[in-house]
Amino acid sequence: MEKVIVISAHPDDEVLGCGGTLLKHKHEGDEIHWIIITGVFEKQGYTKEIIQNRQQEIEKINNLIGVSSIHQLNYPTMSLNSASLNKLIPQISTIFKKINPEVIYVMNRSDAHSDHRVAFEAIMVCTKSFRYPSIKKILMYECISETEFAAALPENAFLPNYFVDISPYMEQKITMMKVYGSEIDEHPFPRSVKNIEALAIHRGAQSGVEYAESFMIIKEIWK
After folding, report:
1. How many domains does the chain have?
2. Beta strand 212-220 with 103-107: parallel, antiparallel or unpaired?
3. β-pairing, 162-165 with 212-220?
4. Residues of 74-100 as b/e, b for ≥16 C-beta within 10 angstroms?
5. Hey, is 71 helix, strand or coil?
6. Fewer CB atoms near the end CB (10 Å): N or C, the chain?
7. CA geometry: angle at 108 spanning 25 and 17, to 5°?
């Protein structure tokens, strides 16, 4: 059994980027923990109904995946910046030291959304082997509508080198994404069911399976 932590800058990142992989971890008996960095609040102009719906969505995803713990850090969405790191890094460090994870799934470092980029920076600070010796693998996932919309520069390219066959879990992944009803729309909206399936088919074709999710290995330690 492996202990896995998946990080979402916003709820839905985890389903888009590695929903099928998380279901596979669960099927294989691994222990999954979920860190959600941001939330929505009335002071930002969100209604009580939207806030309540978002919490219900998180609970539904929890039930569908079966995570062992959820850690909501409740930074206002679209507010993360370099100043946030002073508080964010110690919070993440505390969670990592409590859980002692072996596998980390984190958003792509160059995604278009600044919340993703700041969260990635904080996570990487908390993966030094001499302070967090349990961590054996760090995988960066792609997130539709963020990863592909980063500036088209060589240093921002997402170049997958690790693929997971999610063919048995593709239907469940779509079911989970539909929980986030306000985040999906009809094609050609990037977060459409058609586009989610298309990306999984494309990654599957790259790796010789029907459907796949792809990652970039940031670190892997084999002892």
Report:
1. 1
2. unpaired
3. antiparallel
4. ebebeebeeebbeebbebbbebbeebe
5. strand
6. C
7. 40
Segments forming the whole domain that contains residue 71: 3-220
Q: How many CA atoms lie within 13 A of 103 on its CB side?
A: 18
pTM value?
0.96
- Please list the pLDDT of the chain residue by residue as tens digits (223 residues): 999 999 999 999 999 999 999 999 999 999 999 999 999 999 998 899 999 999 999 999 999 999 999 999 999 999 999 999 999 999 999 999 999 999 999 999 999 999 999 999 999 999 999 999 999 999 999 999 999 999 999 999 999 999 999 999 999 999 999 999 989 999 999 999 999 999 999 999 999 999 999 999 999 999 7
- Rounded to the nearest 5°, which phi and psi values hold at 194? -60, -45
Residues 6+ apart with CB under 8 A from 214: 142, 160, 162, 163, 164, 203, 206, 207
Q: Which residues pair with 34 in a beta bridge?
A: 6, 70
**CATH code assigned at 146:** 3.40.50.10320
What is the identity of the amino acid at 129?
S
Instruction: Count Cα neighbours of 77 within 13 Å in the Cβ-side half-sphere.
Output: 17
The rounded distance, in Å, linking the Cα atoms of 84 and 23 is: 31
Neighbours of 183 (CB within 10 A): 18
180: which strand partners? Answer: none
100: alpha, beta or left, given left = phi > 0 and alpha = psi -120 to 50? left
